[in-house]
Amino acid sequence: MNKMFISAGVALALGAGYSLTAFSQAKPEVMVKQRQAAMALQGKYFGPMAAMAQDKAPFKADVVAYNASLLDALSRMPWDGFDASTKDVKSGTLPAVFTDTAKFKAAADQLQSAVEKLVAASKGSDMAATKAAIGGVGKTCGGCHDNFRQKP
Amino acid sequence: MNKMFISAGVALALGAGYSLTAFSQAKPEVMVKQRQAAMALQGKYFGPMAAMAQDKAPFKADVVAYNASLLDALSRMPWDGFDASTKDVKSGTLPAVFTDTAKFKAAADQLQSAVEKLVAASKGSDMAATKAAIGGVGKTCGGCHDNFRQKP
Fold first, then answer.
1. Residue B111 is part of which domain span?
2. Is A61 in the B-facing interface, judged by CB distances under 8 Å?
3. What's the number of domains chain A is made of?
4. A127, A132, B79, B130: most buried, per Cβ within 10 A?
């Protein structure tokens, strides 16, 4: 991954590797709502890209670049919402989120890493590489949902 | 507003003035949910900054910079969800959103502009200027809600 390409994204705007929670002591119900909001918006911006990667929709490089840049931000948003205080709030979250926190964090990090690769790819002109990067993001979504989300 | 400062944000990553919808034909109910999600997350990241600007919480420059960068992305997300097809879906939206679209778009643009100013200010070391920029964002939130959202 070419670090240069990330410089325009959220990551380097804040210094590489920078991570921070949103500095709030929200109520558990609010945190659940906020993390679900982040997931819903990840779906909004990832969905069209997934369709393109699967040749179900025409590939549009500018849409991918735009959606990827927003997904970059969104991929950072859900995680502080999985606070231990939310474990008894009704949601699709499996208990493993709160018991196997290291594995859950690793899964979250994998998404962020895959999105950063997609952001980089989306700035190039290699459609195949960009589609592969979209697939890489999708794999991390599914991998995490398999382990940490109830089956719909 | 110093254009240099925005270069690390979403705006210049995509070319100045670039604007694009999410390329999807989502169902009206889904669009409403997505736009509400974007508003909820704007609240998540703006709330702590508003508290700092009002001296209700200690000012933390790194939190402001981080939250502002995410708000930059979020400020772009709700608008395509106010599609005409959603006008009969139950929500807090006032009919003016769909009848006075030019004024609504101007209000949305004002938010994005105010957030860009905040992103710029948050990268400097002038706390007073940053607090003022936070206030500027809050003013655009309230101005739009006054005209386009039902009173809670």
1. 26-148
2. no
3. 1
4. B130
